[in-house]
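notes to self, project folder thing:

trying the whole complex as one job this time. last attempt i did each chain seperately and stitching them together was a nightmare. four parts in total, labels are on each line so i dont mix them up again. if this works i'll redo the older ones the same way
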Amino acid sequence: MHLKTQQQSSILRVLAHLGRPVTPQELLEAASADSPGLGQATVYRALKRLVETGEVRKIEVAGVSPHYEMERGNHHHFFVCESCQKMFELDGCPGGFRKLLPPGFTMSSHEVIIYGTCQSCAA
Amino acid sequence: MHLKTQQQSSILRVLAHLGRPVTPQELLEAASADSPGLGQATVYRALKRLVETGEVRKIEVAGVSPHYEMERGNHHHFFVCESCQKMFELDGCPGGFRKLLPPGFTMSSHEVIIYGTCQSCAA
DNA sequence: CGCTAATTGAGAATTGATTCTCAATCGGAA
DNA sequence: TTCCGATTGAGAATCAATTCTCAATTAGCG
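result (full assembly):
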């Protein structure tokens, strides 16, 4: 997409720098350093466009509100810290899901979410 | 819990009979046959109590609104049909999730959701 | 039966996430 | 620069799920 404004480029840059799935609220707070006075509507508008162009992915998992992360094309899953509620990307995938399907069912995608305690909270 | 009223026992009985995760709305419609005039608030109140006592489990996965199912103590995961939006239980679990964890992270639980087409919709 | 506390149904209210409205401001082509 | 369409911020509005309010009804002890 064209990054026509300072706000839009701040939002995308900050999202890329955070390097993990974040909520629109976290993103607003982080990007406000770059763009003082940034409004939440602008964050939502930017995220919506970025999701539509495939540059950003919206992640919805039970227990936490929706998060967004840069789409980097690598298949991965997620970890949710039950202590700080932060979400992390997990590399790799155990596979073997197709064998769980009952007869006649077909799989188009799958998701794995692991809940637990992150390194910071465990310390 | 004590099933003090006709409504409460209808709700639990119907939920058990449906045999798969259902939405409060589906449950309301199904249980209305047993208890005419049943209100949605009553369904939500009953589900809330049943979840608190551990008899029922609330399932939240991306793409569909919250579903509820009887807690039967068997570890399993879920299938969501992208065509009819219905949710099904999948027996078994591939395991091997712990090896996805980064150092210092601990796992307390996990969830697997498979998206695709169910047998009815594939036919 | 008679009574009181608990439960119910209907609709209003709340909640959290997200979108809309609109006047003010910005970006960039001429 | 000048101008116009696009973008922005603030707050109102929406949306779906769920909870609350309250008067009417029900359960079941005495």
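what i see at first glance: The helical segments of chain B are 6-18, 24-31, 40-52, 119-122.
need to look closer tmrw
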